[in-house]
Amino acid sequence: MLLNSILVMLTSEKQSVACLARYLEARNWNVAKSRKMLEESLKWRAAYRPEDIRWPEVSVEAETGKMYRAGFRDREGRTVLIMAPAKQNTSSHEGQIRFLVYTLENAVLSLPEGQEKMVWLIDFTGWTMANAVPIKTARETTSILQNHYPERLAVAFLFNPPKVFEAFWKIVKYFLDPKSIEKVKFVYLKDEESMKIMHKYIDPKVLPVEFGGKSNAVYNHEEYSELMTKDDIKMASIWTTEAKSDHVNHGISETLAPDVTSQHSLIAARAS
Questions:
Q1: What predicted TM-score, i.e. pTM, was given to this entire model?
Q2: Which part of the chain is the CRAL-TRIO domain (predicted)?
Q3: Between 113 and 250, whose confidence is greater?
Q4: Nearest partner of 118 among 73, 76, 77, 154, judged by Cα
Q5: Neighbours of 252 (CB within 10 A)
Q6: Residue % of the chain over a pLDDT of 70
Q7: Which residue of 56, 101, 215, 266 lies most exposed, with the fewest beta carbons within 10 A?
Q8: Sheet with 184-187, side-by-side order of all strands
Q9: CA-CA distance, 221 to 207, in Å (whole number)?
Q10: How far is residue 162's CA from residue 127's CA, in Å, rounded to a whole number?
Q11: Does 173 score more than 60 pLDDT?
């Protein structure tokens, strides 16, 4: 009974309920496909161990402010991630992927109670094809986002993308599912109607001036590093608590559905 096997995880905690809902939604409520997707995520987390990535390991990737958690939230209180691909500062595939995963984990665990999704604001100011990430990195990025963080994206704003980006976008779209593509909004500073779309999600009062808002906030690497260092301590505490809880409940879950549950099931429920 596939449905019963998956539903047994609902007994753990509410994060598991939300987790299962995301995986089911990502596979159009097909239980067999959702189960397979979840199992693959559990295997990935067990091997990659995203909860063990710490700021000192990835901080070099953030020096230019190419990706960071914004100091403001959208109108619904959701985490906002700001990305500036023109500020790419490394060529390390593995380093960029680990930085992405670290940032996603931090963003998810920073979501307020009751919120499951985040907002992306991707600034293409100054971007050229020379800044485009290799296809290998783009492919693994989309794979991680879609397969291991399903239904975590509320909306993605592509801010001032140049015409040359259209060619690159056609390549990237090949790796995206239709649902993800629908969440992408092209926004142009000089296009009032497109800006109104973004303002529906983000109040101009908290939006930085560079994005047509009224806030003077800018990325400061030293200050952000202090924040992430503090977050590392909080996250380590959360994972320790979840791991202990998982250990206590593992015996029960294992008896009911040994082919579905995993030692990292609760951790995955909270983060993925």
A1: 0.84
A2: 57-219
A3: 113
A4: 154
A5: 13
A6: 82
A7: 56
A8: 67-73, 79-83, 118-123, 153-159, 184-187
A9: 19
A10: 7
A11: yes
